[in-house]
């Protein structure tokens, strides 16, 4: 879509008109349009530079090339970005984790950042593709001391743990996208998608990713995995993923701790110094000394 507000509003109105008409006379056409829009990545989010040093690497995945960097030496921590993101968004975690004695591995998912387009083509991707990329990267660097995942990276990480070879001692989910169904609802409402088109979109998603839509749910995936200590961090004002869903997730996971913040939103949570301290302290490390663990904005629930 165009970047100006007026043009964007005009485009949304046009799409809504098309989809409402298609619901009655041509639901398959409407589903094709809606599915394409749903799987199109947003414009790249702003991100700072990666920390200096580190070693560049490339890994083959799904007939394409995933690119990333690795820092430090010690037990491996994987950084997994979210939908439309890239490793640089999690850059604030790299040096503290290295200082704590870890190898930190970050990568851009296919069709994201510096990596090649994936099976869905340029500017398009799925959570399954991100999960497979993580699994292929993990085949290179080995089992995880911890996985730190943001937003849709949470679903991708649990998919890799369930269907791939990836294992981890600890799991950190930052502002997790908890389920496909809940995430699709605002998109459906914004574009006026009716029930016939919605059913066809769900079918198209299943055909594309090879899994039922119910599998795109962190709570469902977690039930099929051995419990691991899990840190959940979410902001009450997050407009992209639902804080209330993470509260429910924390109550269901047997070894979970929830840290609640306020005023950080969906992305600032990734670079807040106190959140970084919480994450590094939770993961631990041989050289971790005196990490600050108190004073996170908001309150903490266990």
Question: Explain this structure to me?
Answer:
- The chain is an alpha/beta fold.
- The protein has ten helices and nine strands.
- The protein has helices at 5-25, 27-39, 94-99, 127-141, 153-163, 180-191, 195-209, 218-223, 243-252, 273-283; strands at 55-61, 64-72, 76-80, 103-108, 144-150, 168-174, 230-235, 256-261, 300-301.
- Helix 5 links the parallel strand 5 (144-150) and strand 6 (168-174).
- The radius of gyration is 19 Å and the shape is globular.
- 45% of the residues are buried.
Instruction: Work out the helicity level.
Output: 25-40%
Task: Enumerate the spans where pLDDT stays under 50 for 5 or more consecutive residues.
Answer: 1-8, 288-302
Percent strand equals 15-25%
The main β sheet shows up as:
9 strands, mixed
Separation, N- and C-terminal Cα atoms: 42 Å
Count of beta strands: 9
**Arithmetic mean of pLDDT:** 88
The coarse overall form would be: globular
The Cα radius of gyration reads: 19 Å
Helix segment tally: 10
List SSEs in N-to-C order. Answer: HHEEEHEHEHEHHHEHEHE
**Which structural category fits the helices and strands?**
alpha/beta
Can you list the strand order of the major beta sheet? 1-2-4-3-5-6-7-8-9
Q: Layout of SSEs?
A:
Blueprint: H1 5-25, H2 27-39, E1 55-61, E2 64-72, E3 76-80, H3 94-99, E4 103-108, H4 127-141, E5 144-150, H5 153-163, E6 168-174, H6 180-191, H7 195-209, H8 218-223, E7 230-235, H9 243-252, E8 256-261, H10 273-283, E9 300-301
Parallel strand pairs: 3-4, 3-5, 5-6, 6-7, 7-8
Antiparallel strand pairs: 1-2, 2-4, 8-9
Helix pairs in contact: 1-2, 2-7, 4-5
């Amino acid at each position: 879509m165009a970047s100006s507000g007026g043009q964007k509003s005009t485009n949304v109105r046009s799409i809504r008109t098309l989809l409402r008409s298609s619901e009655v006379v041509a639901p398959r056409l409407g589903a094709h349009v809606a599915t394409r829009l749903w799987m199109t990545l947003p414009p790249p989010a702003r991100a700072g530079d990666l920390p200096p040093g580190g070693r560049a690497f490339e890994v083959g995945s799904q007939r394409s090339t995933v690119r990333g960097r690795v820092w430090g030496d010690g037990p491996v921590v994987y950084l997994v970005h979210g939908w439309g993101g890239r490793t640089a968004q999690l850059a604030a975690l790299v040096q503290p984790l290295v200082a704590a004695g870890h190898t930190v591995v970050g990568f851009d998912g296919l069709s994201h950042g510096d990596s090649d387009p994936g099976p869905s083509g340029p500017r398009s991707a799925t959570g399954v593709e991100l999960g497979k990329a993580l699994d292929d990267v993990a085949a290179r660097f080995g089992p995880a001391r911890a996985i730190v995942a943001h937003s849709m990276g949470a679903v991708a990480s649990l998919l890799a743990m369930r269907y791939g070879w990836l294992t981890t001692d600890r799991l950190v989910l930052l502002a997790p996208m908890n389920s496909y169904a809940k995430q699709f609802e605002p998109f459906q409402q914004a574009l006026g998608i009716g029930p016939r088109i919605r059913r066809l979109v769900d079918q198209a998603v299943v055909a594309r990713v090879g899994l039922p839509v119910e599998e795109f749910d962190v709570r469902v995936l977690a039930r099929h995995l051995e419990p691991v200590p899990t840190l959940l961090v979410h902001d009450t004002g997050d407009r992209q993923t639902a804080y209330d869903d993470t509260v429910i997730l924390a109550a269901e996971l047997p070894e979970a701790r929830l840290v609640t913040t306020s005023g950080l939103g969906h992305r600032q949570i990734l670079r807040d110094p106190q959140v970084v301290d919480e994450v590094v302290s939770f993961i631990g490390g041989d050289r971790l000394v005196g990490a600050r663990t108190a004073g996170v904005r908001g309150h903490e629930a266990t």
